[in-house]
């Protein structure tokens, strides 16, 4: 078989068409999971899956699959591609949808090109990846991977008081397949980068080898409220100042480390928060991320040691509450290498990287060899109507996915040497 | 004349008795300016002024004076002592009242001891020093010093919608004297320290030589909101981190300077204030104080220069809004030296210091040589029912005031060699 390429115009048309489905009166794209807008988006996708000649399957948590399975495949596990089509409020048109529609485009291209896969190829759109209406996010892929019982997921009450199961039934997407029915041979997710790296470096393909581990902590520092004018500097127990020390400590440490560690203090509050009163209390959050578990744990330990020193030096009391902790995900090194080789063969600049945001791939990685492919997002803008990936990059990324899927599925008669 | 001493038990009884006037149902001491509780406090003071045989005078802004003037004094300017008897909400019993009642006690002691002053001696209770109900604070002394027209002061609308002039008339303290009618020869204010210095150092007498200048600024830093996971440290424009740098800069600078400069960041807020978003904006206040105008201006300039560097280094935009600026007050060096000598003669440990809080003395200093005497407040607690000055220190401070007043007034036949 000569090497085919995807139909770029068809893919772009699909992305733009789906991007018009579910806009509110103000023109904002809002397709929250299991809403009427989500139904409209799902209906659109299902129609395209059918037009592509694929088998449609919907599982009990509403995950939608388009499956290309030939009789000769028997019960062979499929190569699965996909992502999600639910959105945040006032979203851009690429996040999630690009991976699903590129997956559909890849299958259609392979079929049209006369490719004879040695195993099934399927595309998935997972339910409620964004988690705006129902928590947790990445719910559909989590249920698919067996990380959350489906009945528990369906009983989730949303921010608007609705129950996910009832809403899925209402919009006609409470399917009959048991979640996890389609255990993949491999999973590849194509996604726009939700950060600025590729765009700033002018690199087309991000070969995602890890997904960062996340550590969220809330830190409370208690000092002593005193008059700003009458309390000499040496006699202060200034909780606000101690909090500022933590912010600069984290920043300096992360910035000087020759590592991808990121550290962020996003929330901060002082009490009593009065101009002429030394803060008695400061409460702030620390978001630490690193693709390496050992390094993430070391960063947490370094912070803990610093807090201990600080408490003694500044005569303040510090307490730490752990809000969330996820270990890093390490993607399948053979698929990662395949993505890299494929990009090179296509003449595309690529770089290995870590994903700082969560994706369905991290869930599916629990049950199958998985990896992700990123393409550049202009200025790294995400969850915003200004989100933009240039057409040439959308097409390039889909062609990389095409080659990777063809290789992972193998042609009948070929040895599956992955 | 042999050296007399004040009647400590009478002074303490007065302080405690006035401290019971104006308590609410929950037992909280609340004598806001020109309220019914303030009237009750004023009535109590006026009764004691009359019992001491002094002339009573009330001016149009409600300042109350007890005056010991003999015919032979003619129109000689009086030595004035005093402070205020209005309070904050849920106050302690010493702030202000101590200075007024010690002043009354000093006059009564001198009269009883047969002291023959060469000029009048008077005690003042200035209206609305605390400024809780009507702004600005230190209003009565400001009007007395000519810094605010009396009619403007009387037209002030309070936080409860009342007009000060109407309230003073209602409680019977809209007097007939024109404010400033009593231009002092010298003014001395005895007050509990509103900070912890004397208490922590075990020193009985604070010789207040300056009152700090104050600079209040609100600083806004604008960076860029980005995802905490996907934005590498080197690509961040983190407004929260930049704000933390300012906090540590101010602290380090003030703490390492061999100067009484104090710097406080009391208010802080981040936007969007989300755990996984790099702060796009940080808004915070800076309270800088120094008893020396040159040094205060230099600190402001150093901060401005640092902000400029920081904006460039962190690629953030910084804007500064000036909220308040008062130059330091330098008290009369001869009275300051007299206080110091007097404390020494009484065998009391003393130290020179700067007042970090505002006092009526800073207003009267505009029109007469003035100074202040501080006594220790346990733990520096202020504006709080736990405010406490030990009896022995209350008595010691009043005796210092006694000697200073006697010296400033001079005995007939003595040369006024102040």
TrEMBL record, chains A, B:
GO terms for molecular function: hydrolase activity, acting on carbon-nitrogen (but not peptide) bonds, in linear amidines; metal ion binding. Keywords: Hydrolase, Metal-binding, Zinc. Binds 2 Zn(2+) ions per subunit. Zn(2+) 1 binds at residues 84, 95, 191. The keyword Zinc applies. Its cofactor is Zn(2+). InterPro entries: Amidase_Cbmase (IPR010158), Bact_exopeptidase_dim_dom (IPR036264), Peptidase_M20 (IPR002933), Peptidase_M20_dimer (IPR011650). CDD domains: M20_bAS. Residues 212-312 form the Peptidase M20 dimerisation domain. SUPFAM superfamilies: Bacterial exopeptidase dimerisation domain, Zn-dependent exopeptidases. Pfam families: M20_dimer, Peptidase_M20. Zn(2+) 2 binds at residues 95, 130, 383. It comes from the Bacteria. Belongs to the peptidase M20 family. This is Zn-dependent hydrolase.
């Amino acid at each position: 078989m000569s090497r085919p390429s995807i139909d770029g115009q068809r893919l772009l048309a699909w992305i733009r068409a789906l991007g018009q489905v579910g806009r509110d009166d103000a023109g904002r794209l809002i397709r929250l999971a299991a809403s009427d807008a989500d139904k409209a988006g799902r209906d659109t996708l299902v129609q395209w899956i059918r037009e592509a000649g694929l088998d449609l399957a919907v599982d009990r948590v509403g995950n939608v699959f388009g499956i290309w399975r030939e009789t000769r495949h028997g019960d062979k596990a499929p190569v699965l591609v996909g992502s999600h089509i639910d959105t945040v409020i006032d979203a851009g048109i690429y996040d999630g949808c690009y991976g699903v529609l590129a997956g559909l485009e890849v299958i259609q291209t392979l079929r049209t090109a006369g490719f004879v896969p040695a195993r099934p190829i399927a595309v998935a759109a997972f339910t409620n990846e964004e988690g705006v209406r129902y928590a947790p996010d990445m719910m559909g892929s989590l249920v698919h991977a067996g990380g959350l019982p489906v009945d528990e997921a369906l009983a989730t009450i949303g921010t608007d008081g609705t129950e996910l199961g009832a809403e899925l039934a209402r919009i006609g997407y409470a399917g009959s397949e048991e979640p996890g029915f389609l255990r993949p041979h491999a999973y590849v997710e194509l996604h726009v980068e939700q950060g600025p790296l590729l765009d700033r470096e002018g690199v087309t393909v991000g070969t995602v080898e890890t997904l960062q581990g996340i550590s969220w902590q809330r830190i409370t520092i208690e000092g002593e409220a005193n008059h700003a004018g009458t309390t000499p500097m040496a006699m202060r127990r200034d909780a606000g100042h101690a909090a500022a020390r933590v912010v600069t400590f984290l920043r300096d440490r992360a910035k000087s480390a020759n590592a991808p560690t990121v550290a962020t203090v996003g929330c901060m509050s002082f009490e009593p928060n009065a101009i002429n009163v030394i803060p008695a209390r400061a409460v702030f959050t620390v978001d630490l991320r690193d693709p390496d578990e050992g390094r993430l744990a070391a960063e947490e330990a370094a912070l803990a040691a610093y807090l201990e020193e600080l408490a003694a030096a500044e005569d303040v009391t510090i307490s730490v509450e752990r809000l969330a902790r996820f270990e890093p995900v390490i993607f399948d090194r053979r698929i990662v290498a395949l993505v890299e080789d494929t990009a090179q063969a296509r003449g595309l600049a690529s770089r290995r990287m870590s994903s700082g945001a969560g994706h369905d791939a991290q869930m599916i990685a629990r049950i199958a060899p998985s990896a992700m492919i990123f393409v550049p997002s202009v200025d790294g803008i995400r969850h915003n109507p200004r989100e933009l990936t240039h057409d040439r990059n959308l097409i390039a990324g889909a062609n990389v996915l095409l080659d990777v899927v063809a290789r992972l599925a193998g042609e009948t008669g070929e040895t599956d040497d992955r």
